[in-house]
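B., you asked whether I could sanity-check this one before it goes into the benchmark set. Here's the sequence:
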Amino acid sequence: MESLQDEEQRLNLMRFFKTGAGDYGEGDEFLGIKVPQTREVVKAASKSIPLSEIPELLMSRWHEVRLCGFLILVDQFERLATKRLERDEQAIKKRDEIVTLYLQYAEQANNWDLVDLSVYKILGHWLMLPTNLGAPLSSPRRREDSNRDEDYKRQVLDELAASPCLWKQRMSIVCTWYSSHHDDPSWCLRYAEIHLHHPHDLMHKAVGWMLREMGKSHLDLLRDFLRQHAHEMPRTMLRYAIEKLPEAERKEWLAVPYDRFSSDYIIKTNPFAGITIPDFVDIILGDKDKCDEAMYYLLHQRLYRQLRERYDTYRLQLYDTFDDILEDFFLYLREGKTGTSRLPYQPLQRIKKKESFETWLLNTFRNYLNARAKAEDRISLTSYNDNGFNGLDGLSTFDHESHECLTDEQKLAIASQLIAYAHQVFYPRGRFIFLRSLLTMLNRQKALPTEEVAIALGMTHISYRVILHRMKHNLAHFRNRLLQGEHLRLDDRHQQMAQRLNDDFTHLYPTLLAYYDKTIDTLKCADAIRQLRQRHYEETGIMAHEPSPDEGPIRATITAFWNKLNHMLIY
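And here's what the prediction gave me:
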């Protein structure tokens, strides 16, 4: 190869591959050999050179020599991957050796041509073939190991995608060319989504290119991806992806406003990235360990923009922000309208066609918003009147940094309204968690362990986190509105509850404990909660959330209670 060097061609290649200071190919050295000449060397050497000598080529200072090494690996891999040898154990072993060597020297493919000419023919083809990599050394290969193979392959590509090396990141997406052309677009969808917000132009081109290639045989999936992500795709990526679409359709996609929500680049190797919308039904209904995370990801990543558009049509009729509404909708889908569904996501059982899942979900959200808007009147600025507490008179200029100007009666009215509101709007588990938080706040050392309560409630960590987030955020939001003189819409029953809390304030523990016990009775996991409380009593001698017997009944002052409630809502 050194005997083929060409000085004029060398200078051209150094300019073409951006080898100047600060460029992506900075410091790369060239002999000045064209690719067809390199392929002639590969053709002559590939059959005779042993695998053990190829690293010497891959570690060469010369760009074309490294390309020669990678192309020899390609040639040797392809000869071991014919239809006849796909499941041959000796061929599998040798292919795995080539893949291992390729990954070991991946950083030597330090320019886009070295990646693009090799990765899809080695790593991309390997994705579609059986492998023994990742398997226990002592276990023979079996047909049912295909799931294990896929998990290991995904792990390999995830590590490339998460690498700080630009060229490894490019490998993780460009290798999907082969699988997309062999009827498996899932790899392309996954890593296109992972690299959606990559800052480098070379990755924008690579992702757009792979989406375009996938769209040649899966046009419906390309359009589905564009509907979900066109608004956040860098324009170069979008133009590459839609290059083969009809001109009128290209103009429509380019007209979508660019709304990049974050300037920070964070690699996301989420296990649900790239999964097609209908496949979420199988995960949500069939995998109890992943169902919540899958639904949460679907709502907050894949369909966020479409859901937001539907929310905007109802925005003026709702109390809550979109993020709060979305958290609540997640619980609505999981727990059902009453919050007591015996099986998570029962409404999904009624879906007849998985292909209609996205439409069903978006329509359900629209119906949910419509029902919620009808149930929630706009907040009125009516001040306090003789019919009961409807706000705080004269607090429109209230200083939020201090609440010393509030009277005890005003503080009590706010606290009572918040507790009654929580009881009115939260699902049964949310009501239980809210009341438990109040009791815990006033008697922290006697609370049940949070982790055990989540288990007793039959909830995953993500569901528990959602409820806590919604409870604290929403109550803090409404507390601020109450401080400004507004009032919350409470139905007659909860207005009476607020008044009862107001009247019984000096006996706060008995009152809250009564509501707490009543809330437990609405849960299907009431027995588990009672068992936890009983175990806590046996270990400590004190029933959880109850005052110590030797302290007597607690008569918390209004100010002390309000300060503690403030602390819970803010911190």
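One thing to flag: Residues 378-403 have pLDDT under 50 and may be disordered. Otherwise nothing jumped out at me.
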